[in-house]
Design brief:
By secondary structure, the protein is α/β, with parallel strands linked by helices. It is 39% helix and 24% strand. Strand 1 and strand 2 form a beta hairpin.
Length: 251
């Protein structure tokens, strides 16, 4: 059975003056998929994500997230998505539970509903024991995991992550990657994440897109990218770094 398409992008273009940040992008992401979005700085990854979130409008093309147009139906889109930026912000003089309660109220979730949900999410992100500590005392890894809990408070269908492991130590990185994987495998949430850490993208992604100078130069599973980019067949050894560098040099 074919999976539902939850992100559909057709001919998406964004210009800033004479500079083309995103050039005629076409892409589909299926429900429950982990899609890793790769590219060097300035490739157009962040601009693409901003258009998917409804935070900037395209000059041409169409975007649909869960069937909604982010440019014309931003509130509808925000109801079904979550977004974790690279540097997540919290009220640092409040504890984790207070921060999540505040976000729940902003999303009009009644306290009687959010209380049990908050407790469950704090366990899920392994912060139950630190729930009553001020967030200002948290490590970056703990804040990132609390950010995941914040994103999940409204039970989104799609989550956008921008460099979710930047600045984390190896233990924090492993926890974050395992958490992202579980969101897709166990809760069937679609994950769209931007990163330039190739080994991490290779570890958890179902499919990968590579952006170079505003163009999507390749998209597919790791095996498909290896076959197209390197001419390799199933069973031959390769890494995402080898694949990426081939497309990068050609781009």
């Amino acid at each position: 059975m074919e999976k539902e398409t939850v992100i559909r992008i057709e001919g998406l273009t964004k210009r800033y003056g004479t500079q083309i940040a995103v050039d005629n992008l076409n892409l589909e992401v299926a429900a429950g998929e982990i899609f890793g979005f790769l590219g060097p700085n300035g490739a157009g990854k962040t601009t693409t994500m901003l258009m998917l979130l409804g935070l900037t409008e395209p000059n041409a093309g169409t975007v649909r997230v869960c069937g909604y147009d982010p440019a014309r139906e931003p509130l509808k889109v925000k109801e079904v998505i979550g977004y974790l930026p690279e540097n997540v912000g919290f009220y640092e003089d409040m504890d984790a539970r207070q921060n999540l309660r505040y976000i729940a109220r902003l999303n009009r979730i009644p306290d009687q509903v959010s209380t049990a949900r908050i407790d469950r999410l704090l366990k899920e992100v392994d912060l139950a024991k630190e729930a009553d500590k001020r967030v200002g005392s948290y490590s970056k890894g703990m804040k990132q995991r609390l950010g995941i809990a914040e994103v999940l408070i409204k039970e989104p269908r799609v989550i956008f992550l921008d460099e979710p492991t930047i600045g984390l130590d190896p233990d924090g990185t492993n926890r974050m990657l395992d958490l992202i994987s579980n969101l897709s495998r166990e809760r069937k949430i679609t994950i769209f994440f931007s990163s330039h850490l190739l080994d991490q993208v290779q570890r958890i992604s179902d499919r990968i897109g590579i952006m170079i100078k505003g163009k999507l130069v390749a998209a597919g599973s790791l095996a498909e990218l290896a076959q197209r980019g390197l001419g390799l067949e199933e069973g031959e050894a390769y890494t995402l770094e080898e694949i990426y560098m081939k497309y990068f040099k050609e781009g």
